[in-house]
Amino acid sequence: MKIKQLIPVFIAFLSILTAQAQQKKYKLHTVAFYNLENLFDTKDDPKIFDEEYTPANGWTEEKYQQKLRNLERVIAEIGTGEQQTNAPVILGVCEIENRGVLEDLVKTPKLAAKDYGIVHYDSPDARGIDVGFLYQKKHFTPTSSANIPLIITDIDGSGKRVYTRDQLLVSGYLDGEEMHFIINHWPSRSGGEKRSSPYREAAGRLNRKIMDSLIAINPNAKIMTMGDLNDGSYNKSVKVEIGAKLKKSQLNEPRDIFNPFEQMAKDGHATLFYRDSGDIFDQIMVSQQFIGEDYSTFKYWKAGIYNKPFMIQQTGQYKGYPLRNSPAEPGFSDHFPVYIYLIKEAK
After folding, report:
1. 196-223 burial by CB neighbour count: b if 16+ within 10 A, else e?
2. In what order do the strands lie in the sheet with 140-148?
3. How far apart, in Å, are the Cα atoms of 11 and each of 3, 4, 23, 41?
4. In the CATH scheme, what is the homologous superfamily, with its name and number, of domain 25-345?
5. How many C-beta atoms surround the C-beta of residue 153 within 10 A?
6. For the segment 286-328, what is each residue's pLDDT rounded down to a tens digit?
7. Could you say which DSSP state residue 240 is in?
Protein backbone atom coordinates (compact mmCIF):
# COMPACT_ATOMS: atom_id res chain seq x y z
CA MET A 1 0.00 0.00 0.00
CA LYS A 2 1.37 3.44 -0.94
CA ILE A 3 2.01 6.15 1.66
CA LYS A 4 -0.77 8.33 0.23
CA GLN A 5 -3.17 5.44 0.76
CA LEU A 6 -1.93 4.91 4.34
CA ILE A 7 -2.56 8.51 5.44
CA PRO A 8 -6.41 8.26 5.54
CA VAL A 9 -6.12 4.96 7.45
CA PHE A 10 -3.76 6.53 9.99
CA ILE A 11 -6.06 9.54 10.46
CA ALA A 12 -9.03 7.25 10.99
CA PHE A 13 -7.06 5.25 13.59
CA LEU A 14 -6.14 8.45 15.48
CA SER A 15 -9.78 9.52 15.42
CA ILE A 16 -10.82 6.24 17.03
CA LEU A 17 -8.19 6.61 19.80
CA THR A 18 -9.25 10.20 20.43
CA ALA A 19 -12.90 9.20 20.65
CA GLN A 20 -12.06 6.42 23.12
CA ALA A 21 -10.05 8.85 25.27
CA GLN A 22 -12.88 11.33 25.26
CA GLN A 23 -15.30 8.63 26.36
CA LYS A 24 -13.30 7.95 29.54
CA LYS A 25 -15.08 9.10 32.65
CA TYR A 26 -13.55 9.98 35.97
CA LYS A 27 -14.73 10.13 39.56
CA LEU A 28 -13.65 13.33 41.30
CA HIS A 29 -13.59 13.95 45.06
CA THR A 30 -12.58 17.00 47.08
CA VAL A 31 -10.60 16.65 50.33
CA ALA A 32 -10.25 19.86 52.33
CA PHE A 33 -9.01 21.45 55.53
CA TYR A 34 -10.46 24.54 57.22
CA ASN A 35 -9.45 26.41 60.36
CA LEU A 36 -12.91 27.45 61.62
CA GLU A 37 -11.45 30.20 63.85
CA ASN A 38 -13.01 30.09 67.28
CA LEU A 39 -16.10 28.04 66.60
CA PHE A 40 -17.40 28.32 70.17
CA ASP A 41 -20.92 27.86 71.46
CA THR A 42 -22.38 30.38 73.91
CA LYS A 43 -22.13 28.22 77.04
CA ASP A 44 -19.46 28.98 79.64
CA ASP A 45 -17.51 25.77 80.22
CA PRO A 46 -15.73 26.09 83.60
CA LYS A 47 -13.07 23.56 82.54
CA ILE A 48 -11.64 25.68 79.71
CA PHE A 49 -10.86 29.32 78.94
CA ASP A 50 -13.85 30.07 76.73
CA GLU A 51 -15.09 33.22 78.49
CA GLU A 52 -14.35 35.41 75.47
CA TYR A 53 -17.09 33.61 73.55
CA THR A 54 -19.96 33.87 76.01
CA PRO A 55 -22.97 36.24 76.27
CA ALA A 56 -21.12 38.17 79.00
CA ASN A 57 -18.69 39.30 76.31
CA GLY A 58 -21.21 39.81 73.53
CA TRP A 59 -21.19 36.34 71.95
CA THR A 60 -24.92 35.66 71.63
CA GLU A 61 -26.94 32.78 70.23
CA GLU A 62 -27.84 34.94 67.24
CA LYS A 63 -24.17 35.58 66.46
CA TYR A 64 -23.33 31.91 66.92
CA GLN A 65 -26.02 30.92 64.43
CA GLN A 66 -24.70 33.50 61.95
CA LYS A 67 -21.21 32.09 62.33
CA LEU A 68 -22.59 28.61 61.55
CA ARG A 69 -24.37 29.93 58.44
CA ASN A 70 -21.18 31.61 57.27
CA LEU A 71 -19.17 28.42 57.63
CA GLU A 72 -21.95 26.39 56.03
CA ARG A 73 -21.77 28.53 52.91
CA VAL A 74 -18.00 28.15 52.58
CA ILE A 75 -17.87 24.42 53.25
CA ALA A 76 -20.69 23.67 50.82
CA GLU A 77 -18.75 25.45 48.07
CA ILE A 78 -15.13 24.38 48.71
CA GLY A 79 -13.70 22.81 45.59
CA THR A 80 -16.78 23.28 43.45
CA GLY A 81 -15.95 23.91 39.83
CA GLU A 82 -13.76 21.73 37.61
CA GLN A 83 -16.94 19.76 36.86
CA GLN A 84 -17.24 19.20 40.61
CA THR A 85 -20.55 20.05 42.29
CA ASN A 86 -20.19 18.13 45.54
CA ALA A 87 -18.86 19.59 48.79
CA PRO A 88 -15.73 17.94 50.27
CA VAL A 89 -16.19 14.25 50.97
CA ILE A 90 -13.47 14.61 53.64
CA LEU A 91 -13.00 17.78 55.70
CA GLY A 92 -10.43 18.26 58.44
CA VAL A 93 -11.14 21.16 60.81
CA CYS A 94 -9.57 22.91 63.77
CA GLU A 95 -10.34 25.61 66.36
CA ILE A 96 -13.59 23.96 67.43
CA GLU A 97 -14.69 24.05 71.05
CA ASN A 98 -16.30 20.62 71.27
CA ARG A 99 -18.23 17.96 69.41
CA GLY A 100 -21.46 19.89 69.92
CA VAL A 101 -20.43 22.74 67.63
CA LEU A 102 -19.64 20.23 64.89
CA GLU A 103 -23.04 18.63 65.38
CA ASP A 104 -24.65 22.06 65.01
CA LEU A 105 -22.56 22.76 61.91
CA VAL A 106 -23.45 19.56 60.05
CA LYS A 107 -27.15 20.14 60.81
CA THR A 108 -27.20 23.39 58.81
CA PRO A 109 -29.37 22.89 55.71
CA LYS A 110 -26.71 22.74 53.00
CA LEU A 111 -24.49 20.40 55.01
CA ALA A 112 -27.32 18.27 56.38
CA ALA A 113 -28.07 17.29 52.79
CA LYS A 114 -24.54 15.84 52.57
CA ASP A 115 -25.04 13.61 55.65
CA TYR A 116 -21.68 14.22 57.31
CA GLY A 117 -20.35 11.96 60.02
CA ILE A 118 -18.04 13.25 62.77
CA VAL A 119 -14.84 11.99 64.39
CA HIS A 120 -13.81 14.10 67.39
CA TYR A 121 -11.88 13.81 70.63
CA ASP A 122 -11.42 16.41 73.35
CA SER A 123 -7.87 17.71 73.43
CA PRO A 124 -5.86 18.96 76.44
CA ASP A 125 -5.51 22.44 74.90
CA ALA A 126 -5.97 25.12 77.58
CA ARG A 127 -8.57 27.01 75.52
CA GLY A 128 -10.35 23.76 74.83
CA ILE A 129 -10.00 24.00 71.06
CA ASP A 130 -9.80 20.70 69.20
CA VAL A 131 -9.35 19.23 65.75
CA GLY A 132 -12.09 17.27 64.03
CA PHE A 133 -12.86 15.15 61.00
CA LEU A 134 -16.02 15.32 58.89
CA TYR A 135 -16.87 12.78 56.20
CA GLN A 136 -19.75 12.12 53.85
CA LYS A 137 -21.15 8.78 54.97
CA LYS A 138 -22.13 7.90 51.43
CA HIS A 139 -18.48 7.85 50.36
CA PHE A 140 -16.30 7.23 53.41
CA THR A 141 -16.49 4.49 56.03
CA PRO A 142 -14.16 4.95 59.04
CA THR A 143 -12.66 1.78 60.48
CA SER A 144 -10.50 3.23 63.27
CA SER A 145 -9.47 6.50 64.84
CA ALA A 146 -7.11 7.70 67.54
CA ASN A 147 -6.13 10.99 69.14
CA ILE A 148 -2.35 10.91 69.49
CA PRO A 149 -1.01 13.37 72.08
CA LEU A 150 1.88 15.70 71.38
CA ILE A 151 3.95 15.56 74.58
CA ILE A 152 6.19 18.63 74.77
CA THR A 153 7.70 20.52 77.69
CA ASP A 154 8.33 24.22 78.09
CA ILE A 155 11.63 25.25 76.52
CA ASP A 156 12.42 27.38 79.57
CA GLY A 157 13.80 24.24 81.18
CA SER A 158 11.12 23.97 83.87
CA GLY A 159 10.02 20.56 82.61
CA LYS A 160 6.43 21.75 82.68
CA ARG A 161 4.23 20.22 79.99
CA VAL A 162 2.86 22.50 77.28
CA TYR A 163 -0.71 21.40 76.60
CA THR A 164 -1.63 21.58 72.94
CA ARG A 165 -3.83 19.85 70.39
CA ASP A 166 -3.64 16.12 69.77
CA GLN A 167 -3.03 14.79 66.26
CA LEU A 168 -6.09 12.93 65.01
CA LEU A 169 -5.62 9.79 62.93
CA VAL A 170 -8.62 8.42 61.03
CA SER A 171 -8.43 5.32 58.85
CA GLY A 172 -11.15 4.01 56.60
CA TYR A 173 -12.39 3.37 53.08
CA LEU A 174 -13.14 6.06 50.50
CA ASP A 175 -15.46 4.41 47.97
CA GLY A 176 -13.92 1.08 48.93
CA GLU A 177 -10.26 2.20 48.90
CA GLU A 178 -8.32 2.26 52.18
CA MET A 179 -6.82 5.61 53.21
CA HIS A 180 -5.42 7.25 56.33
CA PHE A 181 -5.88 10.89 57.33
CA ILE A 182 -3.98 12.87 59.98
CA ILE A 183 -5.57 16.13 61.17
CA ASN A 184 -3.27 18.71 62.77
CA HIS A 185 -3.27 22.05 64.57
CA TRP A 186 0.31 22.57 65.62
CA PRO A 187 1.48 24.84 68.47
CA SER A 188 1.18 28.56 67.81
CA ARG A 189 3.95 31.12 67.38
CA SER A 190 3.13 32.73 70.71
CA GLY A 191 6.34 34.13 72.15
CA GLY A 192 7.85 34.47 68.71
CA GLU A 193 8.54 32.19 65.75
CA LYS A 194 12.10 31.30 66.73
CA ARG A 195 11.34 30.65 70.40
CA SER A 196 8.33 28.47 69.65
CA SER A 197 9.74 26.57 66.65
CA PRO A 198 10.91 23.55 68.73
CA TYR A 199 7.28 22.83 69.58
CA ARG A 200 6.29 22.65 65.91
CA GLU A 201 9.37 20.65 65.06
CA ALA A 202 8.25 18.13 67.69
CA ALA A 203 4.82 18.11 66.04
CA GLY A 204 6.47 17.36 62.70
CA ARG A 205 8.41 14.47 64.21
CA LEU A 206 5.22 13.02 65.71
CA ASN A 207 3.54 13.33 62.31
CA ARG A 208 6.42 11.51 60.67
CA LYS A 209 6.30 8.78 63.33
CA ILE A 210 2.58 8.20 62.71
CA MET A 211 3.13 7.93 58.96
CA ASP A 212 6.11 5.60 59.34
CA SER A 213 4.05 3.34 61.62
CA LEU A 214 1.36 3.06 58.94
CA ILE A 215 3.94 2.35 56.22
CA ALA A 216 5.58 -0.33 58.37
CA ILE A 217 2.25 -2.16 58.42
CA ASN A 218 1.56 -1.56 54.71
CA PRO A 219 4.23 -0.08 52.42
CA ASN A 220 1.47 0.83 49.96
CA ALA A 221 -0.54 2.80 52.51
CA LYS A 222 -2.23 5.90 51.16
CA ILE A 223 -1.68 8.65 53.73
CA MET A 224 -2.75 12.27 53.79
CA THR A 225 -1.72 14.74 56.48
CA MET A 226 -3.41 18.12 56.72
CA GLY A 227 -3.83 21.03 59.07
CA ASP A 228 -2.97 24.48 60.30
CA LEU A 229 0.71 23.92 60.98
CA ASN A 230 1.50 27.46 62.15
CA ASP A 231 4.56 27.04 59.94
CA GLY A 232 5.16 27.44 56.24
CA SER A 233 6.15 24.69 53.84
CA TYR A 234 9.75 25.96 54.01
CA ASN A 235 10.12 25.60 57.80
CA LYS A 236 12.17 22.83 59.42
CA SER A 237 9.07 21.24 60.95
CA VAL A 238 7.75 20.47 57.45
CA LYS A 239 10.85 20.23 55.24
CA VAL A 240 13.07 18.26 57.63
CA GLU A 241 10.92 16.59 60.30
CA ILE A 242 8.21 15.44 57.87
CA GLY A 243 10.52 15.50 54.86
CA ALA A 244 7.93 16.98 52.48
CA LYS A 245 8.97 17.27 48.83
CA LEU A 246 8.45 20.23 46.52
CA LYS A 247 8.08 18.17 43.32
CA LYS A 248 6.28 14.92 42.59
CA SER A 249 9.35 13.74 40.69
CA GLN A 250 11.31 13.76 43.98
CA LEU A 251 9.21 10.96 45.45
CA ASN A 252 11.22 7.73 45.29
CA GLU A 253 10.26 5.72 48.38
CA PRO A 254 6.95 4.70 50.00
CA ARG A 255 7.60 7.07 52.95
CA ASP A 256 8.09 10.09 50.69
CA ILE A 257 5.40 12.76 50.80
CA PHE A 258 4.46 15.55 48.40
CA ASN A 259 3.42 19.04 49.49
CA PRO A 260 1.63 20.89 46.64
CA PHE A 261 1.34 24.01 48.77
CA GLU A 262 5.08 24.66 48.76
CA GLN A 263 5.01 25.75 45.12
CA MET A 264 1.84 27.75 45.75
CA ALA A 265 3.65 29.64 48.53
CA LYS A 266 6.58 30.28 46.20
CA ASP A 267 4.09 31.69 43.70
CA GLY A 268 2.86 34.21 46.28
CA HIS A 269 -0.43 32.63 47.37
CA ALA A 270 -1.57 32.75 51.01
CA THR A 271 -4.11 31.27 53.40
CA LEU A 272 -3.59 33.92 56.11
CA PHE A 273 -2.00 37.33 56.62
CA TYR A 274 -0.13 38.92 59.50
CA ARG A 275 1.24 42.47 59.45
CA ASP A 276 0.68 42.65 55.68
CA SER A 277 2.65 39.47 55.08
CA GLY A 278 0.89 36.45 53.62
CA ASP A 279 1.83 32.80 54.11
CA ILE A 280 0.42 29.31 53.73
CA PHE A 281 0.17 27.67 57.14
CA ASP A 282 -2.77 25.49 56.02
CA GLN A 283 -1.46 22.57 54.03
CA ILE A 284 -2.44 19.14 52.72
CA MET A 285 0.31 16.64 51.90
CA VAL A 286 -0.05 13.26 50.19
CA SER A 287 2.05 10.11 50.28
CA GLN A 288 3.77 8.60 47.26
CA GLN A 289 0.90 6.17 46.64
CA PHE A 290 -1.33 9.10 45.63
CA ILE A 291 1.10 10.09 42.85
CA GLY A 292 1.13 8.54 39.38
CA GLU A 293 -0.69 8.20 36.09
CA ASP A 294 -2.53 4.95 36.83
CA TYR A 295 -6.02 6.19 37.64
CA SER A 296 -7.46 2.77 38.39
CA THR A 297 -7.19 3.93 42.03
CA PHE A 298 -7.56 7.41 43.50
CA LYS A 299 -4.67 9.72 42.66
CA TYR A 300 -3.81 13.31 43.53
CA TRP A 301 -4.83 15.69 40.73
CA LYS A 302 -4.31 19.26 41.93
CA ALA A 303 -4.65 21.62 44.89
CA GLY A 304 -6.24 24.97 45.62
CA ILE A 305 -7.05 27.68 48.14
CA TYR A 306 -10.71 28.63 48.44
CA ASN A 307 -10.82 32.42 48.79
CA LYS A 308 -13.94 33.84 47.15
CA PRO A 309 -14.70 37.61 47.43
CA PHE A 310 -17.47 37.14 50.01
CA MET A 311 -14.85 35.68 52.41
CA ILE A 312 -12.48 38.65 52.06
CA GLN A 313 -12.35 42.02 53.80
CA GLN A 314 -13.13 44.56 51.07
CA THR A 315 -12.29 47.86 52.77
CA GLY A 316 -10.14 49.43 55.47
CA GLN A 317 -6.79 48.59 56.97
CA TYR A 318 -7.25 44.86 56.45
CA LYS A 319 -8.51 44.97 52.88
CA GLY A 320 -7.66 41.68 51.15
CA TYR A 321 -7.39 39.75 54.43
CA PRO A 322 -9.77 36.89 55.31
CA LEU A 323 -13.00 38.24 56.83
CA ARG A 324 -12.35 36.97 60.33
CA ASN A 325 -14.57 36.18 63.28
CA SER A 326 -14.86 37.96 66.65
CA PRO A 327 -17.32 38.12 69.57
CA ALA A 328 -18.41 41.51 68.26
CA GLU A 329 -18.96 40.44 64.67
CA PRO A 330 -19.47 36.87 63.43
CA GLY A 331 -17.37 36.50 60.30
CA PHE A 332 -15.87 33.51 58.55
CA SER A 333 -12.28 32.76 59.58
CA ASP A 334 -8.85 34.35 59.62
CA HIS A 335 -7.71 31.46 57.42
CA PHE A 336 -8.80 30.46 53.93
CA PRO A 337 -9.54 26.74 53.51
CA VAL A 338 -7.33 24.56 51.34
CA TYR A 339 -8.30 21.57 49.25
CA ILE A 340 -7.06 18.93 46.85
CA TYR A 341 -8.81 16.88 44.22
CA LEU A 342 -8.59 13.10 44.07
CA ILE A 343 -9.36 11.54 40.71
CA LYS A 344 -10.09 7.98 39.64
CA GLU A 345 -11.17 6.42 36.38
CA ALA A 346 -14.81 5.40 36.65
CA LYS A 347 -15.68 1.83 35.74
Report:
1. bbebbbbbbebbbebbeebbeeeeebbb
2. 140-148, 167-174, 177-185, 223-228, 282-287, 257-258, 244-245
3. 12, 12, 18, 65
4. Endonuclease/exonuclease/phosphatase (3.60.10.10)
5. 14
6. 999 999 999 999 999 999 999 999 999 999 888 999 999 899 9
7. I
